[in-house]
Amino acid sequence: SAAWTAEAKRRLEEELSHQLYPDGIHFELSTGYQGAVIDNYEFVLDLLHCYGEPVSPSLLAKFHDLYAIYPKLCRPTWDLPDLNDGKNESVAQRTSSALRYFPDDARYRYFATGGREGVAPEEKSMLLPYAGFAVFRTGDGKNDLYALFDGGPFGKAHQHEDKLNFILTAYGVHMLDDPGNFYYDNSQMRKYVLTTCSHNTGKGDNLPQNRRKNYTWHPEDIGKRSRLRMRIGENTEVAEAVYNEGYGENLLPV
């Protein structure tokens, strides 16, 4: 059993190396599946703890990166946007869970306690260069302004055809949002949420994006930076990216 336990720990750490971009985003690029992976790892780490089994610092460091996405993408409503097959996860709830494993993390404590304890992140707007997300944020108060721009890769399997999509939250209202996930069925709504039409991005000659047609995931893609560029200045913040992978069934070149 000692050998099985050691192998399980090795695989747990190896999979995080395979599945996490260097900026901590899971390769599905989905807020929902980020949480699903955390749930799965919590179950195993809690089991190891019950049996007094140590966990390597390197595995815990990768596990910490999984949680870090919540402060990074947090909206002023203290939830995450529905990216790809995602959902509006509570940042306070997730960071409360993170404190069980990382009680000294002042950033997690800040969000877990509604700002009553801990330390607020100094950085507001930021670029996640591998996942290809640009986050624009004036602060974390309910009346602050927030936008997220997606100029990154397609992801592993739960993708939507939505490159150059952006969402906007202002004064506590999700003014432009992402439709997120829908039941995994054959309904028209399921088909709709996957398309360019349901997102805040453009079409070419009224045709949707079609990255999926010729797409193949390569494991080495996890270490590649996106081509999203962002500049954060004193008075202006701007990001840009390019979609040139074709529109419609015939991949109209735009």
The radius of gyration over CA amounts to: 19 Å
Strand order of the largest sheet: 1-2-3-4-5
The span between the termini is: 57 Å
* Largest sheet composition: 5 strands, antiparallel
Strand content: 5-15%
The mean pLDDT is 94
Provide an overview of this structure.
This protein has 254 residues and is α+β, with helices and mostly antiparallel strands. It is 30% helix and 12% strand. The protein has 6 helices and 7 strands, in the order αααααβββββαββ. The protein has helices spanning 2-19, 31-50, 57-73, 91-99, 106-112, 188-193, and strands at residues 126-128, 133-137, 145-150, 166-170, 173-176, 229-232, 237-240. The strands form 2 sheets. It has a 5-stranded antiparallel β-sheet, with no helix packed on it. A hairpin with a 2-residue loop joins strand 4 (166-170) and strand 5 (173-176). Helix 2 packs antiparallel against helix 3, helix 3 (57-73) packs antiparallel against helix 4 (91-99) and helix 4 (91-99) crosses helix 5. It is globular, with a radius of gyration of 19 Å. The N and C termini lie far apart (57 Å).
